[in-house]
Every structure is written in C-alpha cells, then in structure tokens.
Amino acid sequence: MKQYYIEQIRAFNRYYTQVLGLLNKGILDGDLGISEVRVMREIYFNADVRPTEVAATLGLDKGFLSRILKRFEKLGLTIRKKSGEDNRSSVISLTDLGRSTYEKINRDSDIQIENLFSDLSEQNLKTVIRSMTTIDSLLHHRDNHAVIDPVIIRPIEEKDNKALADIIRTVFEEFNAPQEGSVYDDPRTNQLYQLFQDVNAEYWIVESNDVVLGGCGFYPTIGLPSACAEIVKFYLSNQLRGNGVGQYLLKMIERRAKKAGYKQLYLESFEVFKGAISMYEKLEYKHLHSSIGDSGHYATTIHMLKDIS
Prior knowledge:
This protein has 309 residues and is an alpha+beta fold. Helix content is 44%, strand content 17%.
C-alpha cells in the first residue's frame, strides 16, 4: 500500500475524531469514554448478555472489558447475576440508572449529529451516507471482493409503493411461494406507505443509487398482544442477499421496535425461504406451533417469536 494512501486515511481519521470530540475524556462532556459507551449500548439492546458475548461482538480484550464492567457496577450502572442456563457463568443488565444514562447519551448524540450535518441538503446527506456505506462494504468484503454498490436505509415514502410491491411479488415468484393467502395477493401490499401512517409502526427502505431494493418494518397486527409487533414485508432483491444487509436491517428494526415500546416480535414465513428462516433462527427467533394474531395471510407455514425486552 502506498504511503500516500496511508497518510490520507490517517488524516481523515484525525479530522473526524476531532470533529466528533472523541479525543475528549468523556463522550458529550460526560464521564464515559467511547469504549464504555459502546459496551453500555450493547448491554442496553441485549439484556442479560454474557460478558464473553459483548467482548466477541465489539472485538474487545476480555481483561479490558472486565475493567469497564467493574467500573459500571461501582457507578451503579449495571447489575450482574448468575445465568439461568449455567450457574457457573454470569449475565449483565443495565440498572434503571444505567438505562437512563444511556438514553441521555443517545439523545445527546442524535443532537450532536443533527447539528453537525443540519446545513447539508438532502442530496448531500445521501452522498455522505453512501460514502460511509462504501467504506463499510469495502472493508467487510475485502477477502472475497463481493462488494455491493453503496446502500442507504431510510423511512418509506409514498413514491416507494410500486417499487416495493414489485420486489415483494418478484421474490414470491422467484421462490415459487404461495401466491394466495399471502402478502402476494394482499391489496395492502400496493399501498405500504399508507399502511404505516398514524400507528405505532415503522417501515424502512433499502436503496442504492436511488433504486429501491427492498425493506422491512414492524406493525401492531390485529390480535397480537399489546406489547408485540409483527415483522412485516421483509423482502430484498436478489442482489442484496448473502452480504449481511438483511441481517443488519432486521437488527435495526428490532432496535426500533424496542424503542417504540414493544417487548416481542412475531413473524410469518414459508419453508421455501430457507435462507431467511436460518437467519431468524440464528437471531434467536423461536418456532411456534401455530400462528398468532390476524395478519390475514392464512397460507403461511412458519411462525416465529422473539423476546426483545
């Protein structure tokens, strides 16, 4: 690698860490450093998580993580207890103080980013996001060079209706999935933007170079418990499959649903979507014997549930 490239990358890193104030002792004038905030975030979104899982996810040295967790306990931010599955291991959760501390840091971080980028136009913001995803894609796929065009993830807009409906029905035809009693013949599939208005629901679009490539959302389906939402209309075009975009999107939807107050997520699918089913299982969705709620999709054969509280 040429020294010129090394110098350019290091210069950008120095600039951006300074812009975000990451050289300061604490994040956003607080008493916690960047590593500590990332550990806190991981615990916030994964209650009763094992320290080894946090270390693996964040790529942290176990000794370094242990010192962070001891400080958290001393500050009253976390509580440690024996694992229900194995009394020899422990799990960690945030206390009420820990949760409120993280939520304040999260709110302040949102404000910081908004202030930093507020003067940019919508088009320039998309350029920034594409540039970021290009870096992420190149670094994460450097071994097999399976780099996709940069993507952005954004809330659904009314103009997305036709493109999304076409993608969903194309996926059903591609996998020879049942077209009756499913999302395929559901008239609501043609007006997804309208479906997600004025309810405690969200739908997010994945697009690349201004082309819609799929999406995913959560919705309070009739008949589900009040604290349970359904993962709905989770379909991606074939060029996005197998590169981690689907898993990233689903995890984001889980976080958004949790933030919206839901404690469980339910989903319906078909055996022919083997790749998706495998991903759900890895993300700890549990199979149910039958459907719950009233989605109107009577042909589905796979029904799964996950606790996100």
